[in-house]
TrEMBL record:
Its EC number is 2.7.7.87. Pfam families: Sua5_C, Sua5_yciO_yrdC. Belongs to the SUA5 family. InterPro entries: DHBP_synth_RibB-like_a/b_dom (IPR017945), Sua5-like_dom (IPR006070), Sua5/YwlC_C (IPR038385), Sua5_C (IPR005145), T(6)A37_SUA5 (IPR010923), TC-AMP_synthase_SUA5 (IPR050156). This is Threonylcarbamoyl-AMP synthase. The lineage of its organism: Bacteria, Pseudomonadati, Bacteroidota, Flavobacteriia, Flavobacteriales. It comes from Psychroflexus sediminis. Keywords: ATP-binding, Cytoplasm, Nucleotide-binding, Nucleotidyltransferase, Transferase, tRNA processing. It is found in: Cytoplasm.
Amino acid sequence: MSIISNDIQKAISLLNQEEVVAIPTETVYGLAGNIYSEKAIRKIFDVKQRPLFNPLIVHVHAVDQLGALVSEFPEKARLLADAFWPGPLTLILKKKPTVPDLITGGKNSVAVRIPRHPVTLELLRQLDFPLAAPSANPFNRISPTSSSHVEAYFKDRLKLVLEGGECQAGIESTIIGFEDGEPVLYRLGSIAVEEIEEVVGPLSIRNKKEHAPEAPGMLAKHYAPQTKTLLVEDIDSFLQNTDYARIGVISFSEKIKSLAGERVQVLSPAGDLKEAASNLYSALHKLDSLGLDIIVAQRFPEEGLGKSINDRLERATSS
Ligand code: TXA
Ligand code: MG
């Protein structure tokens, strides 16, 4: 029997019993539990096979809930919250002692966001506690952008995946922290760097694996298909020079003359980076299910969400 359901009341009842429930957000599906339940939070780490030092994002439905969680809210954090919440922006803020160390990996900061998904906002409104939720994929695998992706990963471990349709933004939230009140970007995501800079001015970018201690999720290999995956500048010239037989392709906007069918995933025929971002993970899931010899992805333009897409493709292809 399927564990996918529209039943918000069932999700509430499970969460109140310290269970873990998969929830939809506008970015990717999350594995959610009560931040104050040690049992629920330990189960999240266990189901995901995630190391305990890698902290979780806390999801709330309103800014006034943050009073219980954070001890500082810098001016520029406020500007970003006003501009982008509800939405795919995560802020790293100084935490209050009442936020359990299990959520924050023992750090003195906590990651918070208000997601922009009607089902999960309704769920959060009906709960007496915020939800901690990492992406609902096993550690190092591709994040899920549909309820069926989550079910395929965890049908034996979860009682419920709350249905919310396909995730519209399609890659994880952009993560911003603060140093002396100034914003620092720790993870490229669904809000483009340029959009953030319009609100708070120039950003320091610390998205690379050298910075892993600050944002412990930023390991070089992450979000990876099980099929060997390559990132190339020019797909046609790769195809002309390769010996691989069963090849899958991720292309931005162009069809590939020599290959057809579901092995070619064109992320946005119109050349729209937002649309491409929303289709990226579902295309990787699809290609990874075909038993191919190799997946070849085209490098995207290094602007707007193209930077976030390239970041995920680099992590998918890093070995
Ligand atoms: O879009 C998203 O953000 C999704 C949805 C479900 O909200 N969640 C998500 O969670 O991507 P997760 O756990 O897969 O990634 C959270 C990232 C990790 O890289 C983690 O290291 C970082 O946030 N993080 C969490 N708390 C932090 C903290 N206090 N300081 C620095 N980085 C933190
Ligand atoms: Mg993740």
